[in-house]
């Protein structure tokens, strides 16, 4: 019989959890919220976090956190009007901002706002080509 039987492991885990609980900040405190946010940060690879910097920085140029549907619609409209990004890039920027917001502790958008953001992304798809224009032969 192994020294690390299931019962023994359960007992060790329970003991360790109780030890860790003693070190935890008070539930609901700002410190506990910060600990949880830092833990959530591990859900996103560093390379992905780095790729979010531009979309989030540009979002902050035109809107503030917390993210709302109307703010995202404005951001989508402005990115589309700039005419420099493919619609797939605009979609990835919106995804980055949403992920950043949820990871920061913000609740998801209500369904009615979500529906309008989806329509705004569809408008961007129709207004912005997703492919680079064909190259012209030199004159």
Automatic annotation (TrEMBL):
GO terms for molecular function: DNA binding. Gene3D superfamilies: 1.10.150.130. Keywords: DNA-binding. It comes from the Eukaryota. InterPro entries: Integrase_recombinase_N (IPR010998). This is Uncharacterized protein. It comes from Perkinsus olseni (Perkinsus atlanticus).
């Amino acid at each position: 019989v192994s020294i690390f039987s299931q019962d023994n492991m359960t007992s060790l885990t329970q003991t360790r959890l109780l030890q860790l609980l003693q070190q935890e900040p008070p539930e609901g405190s700002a410190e506990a919220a910060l600990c949880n946010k830092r833990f959530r940060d591990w859900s996103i690879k560093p390379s992905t976090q780095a790729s979010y910097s531009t979309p989030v920085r540009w979002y902050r140029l035109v809107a503030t956190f917390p993210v709302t549907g109307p703010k995202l619609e404005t951001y989508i409209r402005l990115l589309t009007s700039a005419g420099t990004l493919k619609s797939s890039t605009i979609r990835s920027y919106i995804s980055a901002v949403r992920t950043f917001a949820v990871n920061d502790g913000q609740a998801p958008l209500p369904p009615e706002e979500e529906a309008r953001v989806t329509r705004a992304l569809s408008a961007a798809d129709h207004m912005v080509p997703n492919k680079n224009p064909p190259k012209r032969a030199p004159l």
